[in-house]
Design goal:
This protein is α+β, with helices and mostly antiparallel strands and 223 residues long. The protein is built from five helices and ten strands. An eight-stranded antiparallel sheet has the order 4-3-5-7-8-6-9-10. A two-stranded antiparallel sheet has the order 1-2. Bound molecules: 7-methyl-guanosine-5'-triphosphate (MGP).
């Protein structure tokens, strides 16, 4: 924060005025009480993020099972929310968390996701205990910390799927044809998670995921 606020108290006029003024002025640093805003390079959206929760209730449609939990736009409010909610590894199978830029719904149908795709991290069952929570936290920090430089603009959000068959974490980007942004994001993301170089992660378009017939979707990019 650039300038410190100076709060002065009324000083009686006397010989010691100057000395008194110096000692009675309190320097109040804005850092002490102003929360730290999250950065966002994207000029079309502000720096606010929204956390969503999905609970699988088979009597409802997919969209009806999706609920907004809360929005935040400061470092402090991010941690307050993160510390308040259940760790992913404690969620029931079938549940998701999604963190998306405010204004983008965590679904394929949103205008900013329609032509997009995702970097997908698939985890083995053993990784739920070893890696799931720290991978998800690192993913969140990549997003709110704008870890992908100028290409952070292409990021829409991230999703964690807690599933009995194996958990998944993904970063969703807005344009599956933006090779430069996608490859940069994939490279940085893999590094940040500490995924070994020999382990290959794939990027798939939502269009392919939504229309897939088998259990796998073809990769448009790999990292
Ligand atoms: P899922 O929850 O992403 O993965 O999609 P899961 O449960 O591991 O299943 P799998 O098919 O990947 O093995 C499960 C189903 O939820 C999809 O087949 C869709 O029917 C529905 N679904 C998921 N997403 C992300 C969307 C979405 O964005 N929009 C709509 N309309 N349905 C979705």
């Amino acid at each position: 924060m650039a300038t410190a606020l100076v709060v002065s108290t009324l000083i009686p006029s006397n010989a010691e005025k100057e000395k008194c003024e110096a000692t009675s002025q309190k320097i109040v640093r804005p850092e002490a009480y102003i929360k730290h805003p999250l950065q966002n390079n994207d000029s079309s959206l502000n720096c606010r993020w929204a956390l969503w929760f999905f609970k699988n209730d088979k009597s409802k449609t997919w969209q009806a099972n999706l609920r907004l939990i809360s929005k935040f736009d400061t470092v402090e409010d991010f941690w307050a929310l993160y510390n308040h909610i259940q760790l992913s590894s404690n969620l029931m199978s079938g549940c998701d968390y999604s963190l998306f830029k405010d204004g983008i719904e965590p679904m394929w149908e949103d205008e900013r996701n329609r032509r997009g795709g995702r970097w997908l991290i698939t985890l083995s069952k053993q990784q739920r205990r070893a890696d799931l929570d720290r991978f998800w936290l690192e993913t969140l920090l990549c997003l709110v910390g704008e870890a992908f430089d100028d290409h952070s603009d292409d990021v829409c959000g991230s999703v964690i799927n807690v599933r009995a068959k194996g958990d998944k974490i993904a970063i969703w980007t807005t344009d599956y044809e933006n090779k430069e942004a996608i490859t940069h994001i994939g490279r940085v993301y893999k590094e940040r998670l500490g995924v070994p170089p020999k382990v290959i992660i794939g990027y798939q378009s939502h269009a392919d995921t939504a229309t897939k017939s088998g259990s796998t979707t073809k990769n448009k990019f790999v990292a």
